[in-house]
Amino acid sequence: MTKTIVITGLGEGMGREVAKILAGTGYSIAGFDMNGTAVESLKKELKAIGGDHHLIAMDITDRKGILKFRDDVLKKYGTVGTVLSNVGIGFFGPFEEIELEKALKCLEINVIGAMAIFQAFIPSMRKAGGGKLIAMSSLVGRIPFPFESIYTASKFAITGFIESMEYEVRPYGIKVAIIEPAQVSTTFAAKIHHLPPEKSPYRDRVKRFIDRDNELIKSAPTPEAAARTIVNIVQKDRPKFYNQLLFADAFLMKLNRFLPKRVKDFVLESYMKIRV
Q1: What pLDDT, on the 0 to 100 scale, is given for residue 39?
Q2: Could you give the CA distance from residue 261 to residue 164 in angstroms, rounded to a whole number?
Q3: What distance in Å separates the CA atoms of residue 236 and residue 243, rounded to the nearest whole number?
Q4: Phi, then psi, of 246 in degrees rounded to 5
Q5: Does residue 117 surpass a pLDDT of 60?
Q6: Can you name the CATH fold of 4-194+223-251?
Q7: CB 143 within 8 Å of CB 256
Q8: Are 196 and 202 in contact (CB under 8 A)?
Q9: What is the pLDDT of residues 211-264, one digit of tens each?
Q10: What is the four-CA torsion angle of 139, 211, 150, 186, rounded to 10 degrees?
Q11: What's the average model confidence in pLDDT over 154-183?
Q12: N or C: which end of the chain has fewer CB within 10 A?
């Protein structure tokens, strides 16, 4: 299969590290990020590594831009072997107090964004007789977390979308996979964590949740470590459908399948220190 990969959201974090590792193994990297400064600095790094690349600054919500990007990539490389949908934003807060218009933006980016990039490249993969579509989801795509209802909803949606779509593309040799990180030591959570107003009935539990989350992030894998695991998944001819980054995450997923809801609720609330 061709060693050309499309990566969305590769300006920072895991996406950037994955791009650099794959470039070092001979992959051609095509991708975009809305952070133009990050894109330009990544171009310099990939050039130093020696990898061929086609990177642009673009927002995932730019539908026409995605189609032009696809056309340019296919014109340059002929075929694309893998598309890694890595764009995503967080969303945090008690559901009662959130602004639904802002929630809509999260769903647009996290869900429709992944759909848009996959839909753009499926026709060429189908005609080529194969390819891989890999979606970056989250542990919360199957295990809901409090105060992350909108983000959780977006990741549950990704899981449902990928599970359904896989039936459609499988006959054409297209493999589909989901990667489900728990926590990675980045600024992702810090950008969205905020306390509700002083009079909010949720403020105390939200504070405890944030404090616990910040504590867990300190021991979470670095973007570089997470990227190495992601690269191993990307390079497999037949990746597993569900993929976690750590053994503990995989074990938690298995427990989630069998434990009664009341037990799961007790474990999660105790773990995040928000029991009342």
Answers
A1: 97
A2: 25
A3: 12
A4: -130, 155
A5: yes
A6: Rossmann fold (3.40.50)
A7: yes
A8: yes
A9: 998 888 888 788 898 899 999 999 999 999 999 988 888 888 888 888 999 998
A10: -60
A11: 95
A12: C
Q: Spell out the SS3 assignment of 60-108.
A: CCCHHHHHHHHHHHHHHHCCCCEEEECCCCCCCCCHHHCCHHHHHHHHH
Q: Determine how β-strand 82-85 pairs with β-strand 174-179.
A: unpaired
Rounded distance between C-alpha atoms, residue 233 and residue 156, angstroms:
21
pLDDT of res. 243: 94
Percent of the chain with pLDDT over 90: 76
Question: CB of 54 within 8 A of CB of 30?
Answer: yes
pLDDT grade for 83, boundaries at 50, 70 and 90: very high
CB burial of 54-89 (b: ≥16 within 10 Å; e: otherwise) equals bbbebebeeeebbeebbeebbeebebbbbbbbbbbb
Place of tokens 């133009």: 36
Q: So where are the chain's domains?
A: 4-194+223-251
Q: 266 phi and psi, to 5 degrees? A: -60, -45
Can you give 185-205 as a three-state secondary structure string? CCCCCCCCCCCCCCCCCCHHH
**pLDDT at residue 192, as a whole number:** 74
